[in-house]
């Protein structure tokens, strides 16, 4: 794919033109991403205070005792979303569901331990340890190029 940017002082609003010989999944993904105008905000609740969480600061989103939490540098925040709703709001290239109750930020992974039979142990850069479910092992191995 080629990307070309032209600077024009007369242009008041950015304009994007996609030139292709046929519609492909890649072209459709680009169009979908560009046309998605709503910023995906994640609001975290802690001690009667609501904070807007930057996705880049989130280590993982997980469900525990029927509630959904986001783990960041600053601690855990309760989310008023279901896990699948949080998954839809987060970038699928950065965040991956590793089990029915856990979504991790791939950019915050310190290591993958494959020594456990049938599963993968993931250590995040903040020291949190979590496990990939057996159902998701194949997907994670594919992500790792194995």
From TrEMBL:
<keyword id="KW-0804">Transcription</keyword>
<protein>
    <submittedName>
        <fullName>LytTR family transcriptional regulator</fullName>
    </submittedName>
</protein>
<dbReference type="InterPro" id="IPR007492">
    <property type="entry name" value="LytTR_DNA-bd_dom"/>
</dbReference>
<keyword id="KW-0805">Transcription regulation</keyword>
<dbReference type="InterPro" id="IPR046947">
    <property type="entry name" value="LytR-like"/>
</dbReference>
<feature type="domain" description="HTH LytTR-type">
    <location>
        <begin position="42"/>
        <end position="146"/>
    </location>
</feature>
<dbReference type="GO" id="GO:0003677">
    <property type="term" value="F:DNA binding"/>
</dbReference>
<dbReference type="Pfam" id="PF04397">
    <property type="entry name" value="LytTR"/>
</dbReference>
<keyword id="KW-0238">DNA-binding</keyword>
<dbReference type="GO" id="GO:0000156">
    <property type="term" value="F:phosphorelay response regulator activity"/>
</dbReference>
<keyword id="KW-0963">Cytoplasm</keyword>
């Amino acid at each position: 794919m080629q990307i070309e940017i032209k600077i024009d002082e007369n242009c008041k609003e950015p304009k994007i033109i996609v030139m292709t010989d046929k519609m492909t999944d890649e072209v459709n993904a680009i169009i979908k991403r560009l046309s998605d105008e709503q910023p995906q905000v994640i609001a975290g609740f802690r001690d009667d205070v609501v904070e807007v969480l930057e996705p880049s600061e989130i280590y993982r989103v997980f469900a525990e005792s029927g509630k959904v939490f986001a783990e960041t540098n600053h601690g855990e925040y309760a989310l008023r979303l279901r896990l699948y709703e949080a998954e839809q709001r987060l970038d699928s290239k950065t965040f991956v569901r590793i089990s029915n109750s856990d979504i991790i930020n791939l950019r915050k992974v310190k290591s993958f331990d494959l020594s456990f039979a049938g599963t993968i142990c993931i250590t995040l850069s903040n020291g949190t340890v979590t496990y990939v479910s057996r159902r998701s092992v194949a997907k994670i191995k594919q992500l790792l190029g194995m």
